[in-house]
Amino acid sequence: MNIILGIDTSCDDTAASVVENGRKIISNIVSNQIEIHKKYGGIVPELASRKHIEMIWPVVDEALKTASSKLESISAIAVCHGPGLIGSLLVGCSFAKALCYSKGIPLIAVNHLEGHIFSSFLEKPRPSFPFIALIVSGGHTCLYRIDNFGKYKELGRTRDDAVGEAYDKIGKLLGLGYPGGPVIEKLSQKGNPRSIDFPRAYLPDSLDFSFSGIKTAVLNYINSQSIKRNTPAIHSGFQTSNSTLISNICASFQEAVIDVLVKKTEWAIKKEGIKKVVVTGGVAANNELRKRMKNLSDKHEVEIFIPSPFLCTDNAAMIASAGYLHYKSKNFAELSLNPQAYLPL
Q1: Is the predicted pLDDT of residue 186 greater than 70, yes or no?
Q2: Is there a contact between 134 and 145 (Cβ–Cβ < 8 Å)?
Q3: How many helices (H) and strands (E) would you count in the chain?
C-alpha cells in the first residue's frame, strides 16, 4: 500500500490530500480565497501567495489528521510545480521540499494539467487508455490524446483566453462579481439561450480554441443595450429592469461557449478514432456542459468520464493520483526543484 500526500497551490486554492494507491481518497482539504479576491474582480497574485503562506501548514496538517496519518507513514509527497501563478507555486514547492528534506520522504513533481487528467482515476468507472482529455478551467482550455501515463499528445489549445477566464470577464462586465462562472450558470437557467446570436469561433481547420471574440461581442452588445455595468447582484435576489436581459445574455453566452467545446470534442473523437473522453477542470463542474457531453455520448456511443464537481475544481487529490503513477515509475524530483509558471504537458 502506497500513501501519497498531494499538495497544490497553483492558483488561489491551498489544497492538501492523502490518497491511497492513487485511487482511494482518504482526505481532501481545500482552503479557497474567494472572499479575498472577489472585491477586486479577479485573483491578485501577491495576495494569493501571501494567503498560501498563511494556510499551507494548517491545510496539510488537517489533511494528515483527517486521514489519521503521520508524515512517517507517507510514501512520497507529490507537489504541483506548474503551470500556475509563480508566487503561489513557490509556496507549495518550498513547503513540500522542506517536509521531504526533514523527514527523508521522496519528492514528486506533478504538472497541474496532468493532475486534472488523472482526477478521473479517483472515481469509478475509470477510463482505459487511450482516451481524449478536454481540460477546461480558468487558466486552460486544451485537448489531449492520452495513450498511457506519460504519453500525451496535444491536439489543440486556446489561442487567447481560457474558457473559465471568459466566464469571469463576462461576469465582471455584467457586474455579477467574482467568480463569474457559477453566477452566469445560475442566471442562464432563467434566460433564453437562443435570444442572442453570439459568435462561435470554430476555427474549422484546427482543434484550437478562441474565446476573445465572444468577449468582444458580449461587450458590444452590452454597450448597445445601455446596460449599467455595476448592476446590483441579481443572483442574490435583487431585481432590476435589466434582469431578463442579463439572464438572456448569460444564457446566450454560455450556449455559444459550450457549443464550441462540444463541437471541438466531437471533431477530436472523429480525428483520433477514440471513443473515450475525459472532461475535467473547473468549468467541467458546469451542469449544462455535463448535460451536453452526455448528449454527445448518446449520439456517438462514446464513453464520457467527468469527475464529481469537487474533483473538477483545483484540489490536491488529483495531484496525489498522478503522483502515485510517478511513484510507481520511480520518477522522483530533486530537492533543487523549481516551480514554473509556464509548463507544457
Answers
A1: yes
A2: no
A3: 11, 10
Clarify whether residues 240 and 226 are in a common domain.
Answer: yes
Residue 204, preceding peptide bond in cis (omega within 30° of 0): no
Q: Is residue 89 within 8 Å of 7, Cβ to Cβ?
A: no
Q: What is the tens place of the pLDDT at every residue in 130-147?
A: 999 999 999 999 999 999
Does residue 22 lie within any of the structural domains?
yes
Same domain, yes or no: 57 and 152: no
Q: How many domains does the chain have?
A: 2
Tell me, what's the pLDDT at 199? 96
Average pLDDT of the chain to the nearest whole number: 94
Range of the domain at 94: 3-120+311-328
Find the angle CA(124)-CA(300)-CA(205) to the nearest 5 degrees.
Answer: 110
Task: Give yes or no for a contact between 209 and 157, defined as CB atoms under 8 angstroms apart.
Answer: yes
Helix (H, G, I), strand (E, B) or coil at 135: strand
196/179 Cα distance (integer angstroms) = 23
* CB distance 345 to 154 below 8 Å: yes
Amino acid identity of 280? Answer: T
Asked whether residue 232 carries a pLDDT value surpassing 60, the answer given is no
Q: Which three cell numbers stand for residue 20?
A: 491511497
In this structure, the answer to whether residues 113 and 168 fall within a common structural domain is no
What are 251-279's pLDDT values in tens digits?
A: 999 999 999 999 999 999 999 999 999 99
Helix (H, G, I), strand (E, B) or coil at 226: coil
3-class secondary structure, 316: coil
Nearest-10 Cα torsion for 238, 243, 249, 252: 90
Is 343 domain-assigned? Answer: no
For residues 20 and 136, membership in a common domain is answered with no
Between 232 and 49, where is the model more confident?
Answer: 49
**Angstrom distance (rounded) from CA 21 to CA 38:** 37
Query: Could you tell me which residues are beta bridge partners of residue 333?
Result: 107
pLDDT of res. 227: 67
CA distance 23 to 17: 12
